[in-house]
Amino acid sequence: MQHKTATSSTAIHDILNRRWSGRAFDASKAVSREQILSLLEAARWAPSCFGDEPWRFIVWDRNSDPVAWEKAFTCLGEWNQDWVKNAPVLLLATANTVFRKNGKPNVWGQYDTGAASENLCLQAVAQGLMAHQMGGFDADMVRREFEIPEQFTCMAMIAVGYQGEETVLNDELRELELAPRNRSALGDNFFEGYWEKGIKTS
Amino acid sequence: MQHKTATSSTAIHDILNRRWSGRAFDASKAVSREQILSLLEAARWAPSCFGDEPWRFIVWDRNSDPVAWEKAFTCLGEWNQDWVKNAPVLLLATANTVFRKNGKPNVWGQYDTGAASENLCLQAVAQGLMAHQMGGFDADMVRREFEIPEQFTCMAMIAVGYQGEETVLNDELRELELAPRNRSALGDNFFEGYWEKGIKTS
Question: Is the pTM of the predicted complex or chain greater than 0.90?
Fold first, then answer.
């Protein structure tokens, strides 16, 4: 079992620090219904433009509905299936393209949905779970299989479960699992006062 | 001083619970440089598709560069200016439209940037600060004023500072400040197994 904390130059909150996208799930441990509800509650309380809550999530719990879980699983790319097979819970995050209140285009739909998913992933950390978001799925297939209206954009699938031993992974994935987390230098993406004036950390 | 916790049916983590978008800032309290760096670090460690880190943020600190802060402030809508005038720190979150590594369109750019901004807002809570995201700004103006390349979409401006007394707000804003937070019922946006099959909370 490993913890990959962020190597940040200044302190950040524990659950932000400990969140990372691992792939070694423990297939033997189910996620309780109460835990699933807390994950969704966390997403529910994310902020959104005009309070429109543009996100819609579907959750599939292998424990309570293996048929639906399997249908969702088949929408994943082969490379992801190889490790998601051990994750007891799958989710899909979709973003409304229009505002609920007036039907006009909502340019913040995906941005706000990203915030809701991040809340969900952080809540997973708080509950001792691991959540891993994926872009690698067949968006047309999941739309077709679950009759998702065109009005909603399928953004990410998310695998959730308890962390397992990295020995459940194949060699390639295990190497990724054990590699340190890394990010660009702070000043590469965070500017001070002016575009591309990288912020100095000292 | 008020705390508006989420009224969720199941427990969620404290910093997710306490995050809300207040408007009553204390103009007399600056945010330290170390605090600003921690906010940015929190955003830096958000997840992103292929680890591309599509977000770019500009931070304006009234305390260290009042001229640049003022220039950013003028890009806000009048309604927002009325309360943001008390916020010592402003930020702009922008999303890369293409992948850094190969220049191809990145359909997760806005989604991932939303996650980074949420991390920043949660870190603000952890530090005893308040962060409030806004879509109400002139995106063309901020692009022009700060020479932001077309490749990046201007998503949100964010006001950060210490919470102040709600008496700093005008009547209309004070009413909003004191109103309870609310969200749609969980089952309206969170489905179980199938589209629009709202999850049951009991």
Answer: yes
Q: Which two tokens stand for residue B56?
A: 């770019």
Q: Given this model, what pLDDT does residue A7 score?
A: 76
Element (H, E) at B160: strand B152-161
Cα A22 from Cα A136, distance rounded (Å): 15
Say how far apart CA A83 and CA A142 lie, in whole Å: 19
In B, minimum Cα distance to A191 occurs at B58
CA distance B84 to B170: 12
Strand pairing report for A190-192 and B55-61: parallel
Nearest to A13 among B10, B42, B199 (CB): B42
* Chains A–B, number of C-beta pairs less than 8 Å apart: 222
Q: Which two tokens stand for residue B190?
A: 């969170």
Which residues have CB under 8 Å from A102's CB, separation 6+?
none
B153-195 pLDDT per residue, tens: 999 999 999 999 999 999 999 999 999 999 999 999 999 999 9
Q: Which domains does chain A have, with CATH numbers?
A: 19-169 (3.40.109.10)
Task: Give yes or no for a contact between A91 and A154, defined as CB atoms under 8 angstroms apart.
Answer: no
pLDDT at residue B5, as a whole number? 77
Which pair of structure tokens corresponds to residue A43? 């997403």
Burial B45-83 (b: 16+ CB within 10 A, else e): bbbbbeebbbbbbbbbbbebbeebbebbbebbeeebeeb
Alpha helices for chain B (secondary structure H)? 14-18, 33-44, 66-73, 78-84, 109-126, 139-145, 171-178, 186-189
Contact B186, A37 (CB under 8 A): yes
- Measure the CA–CA gap between A124 and A131, rounded to whole angstroms: 6
What 3-state DSSP class applies to A32? Answer: coil
- 3-class DSSP state of B171: helix
Is B57 in contact with A191 (Cβ distance < 8 A)? Answer: yes
pLDDT given for residue B6 in this prediction: 76
**B20, B38, B46 member nearest A11 (Cβ):** B38
* Alpha-carbon gap: A43 to the closest alpha carbon of chain B (Å): 9
Q: Which residues of A touch B3 (CB under 8 A)?
A: none
Chain A interface, mutation test: which of B23, B118, B145, most A Cβ atoms within 10 Å? B118
Q: What is the ipTM of this complex?
A: 0.97
